[in-house]
Specification:
Blueprint lengths: L1 H13 L1 H26 L15 H17 L4 H23 L1
Length: 101
């Protein structure tokens, strides 16, 4: 376990952009699943996120549908507002960090 921690700390010290990019992409994924779970819990529509192909046209509509019904249920709009900036910034940081390796 000590070796794993050393490898992680080495990566953070020498190329933090990759770690930040992966963390931001993970945050965007968490926000997306949070939004999807809230919609499916109220029975709005059952979403199949992992159905091949992974990039379904209906997946792009999920944040918009969340924003349409959020007032009815008293939900905050911030998960959707933070989703896209986290994803874009994460991809930029990841690509920048990988090119610096």
């Amino acid at each position: 376990m000590n070796d794993d921690l050393k490898m992680f700390l080495y990566m953070v010290r020498h190329d933090p952009a990759v770690v930040v990019g992966l963390a931001l992409i993970g945050a965007a994924s968490t926000l997306f699943f949070h939004v999807t779970l809230k919609l499916s819990r109220v029975g709005f529509r059952s979403y199949i996120v992992f159905k091949p192909p992974l990039v379904l046209a209906s997946n792009w509509a999920i944040p918009g549908e969340y924003l349409k019904v959020r007032r009815k249920y008293g939900w905050s709009p911030w998960p959707v507002y933070c989703l896209w900036p986290c994803l874009v910034a994460g991809i930029v940081c990841l690509v920048f960090g990988l090119f610096r390796l």
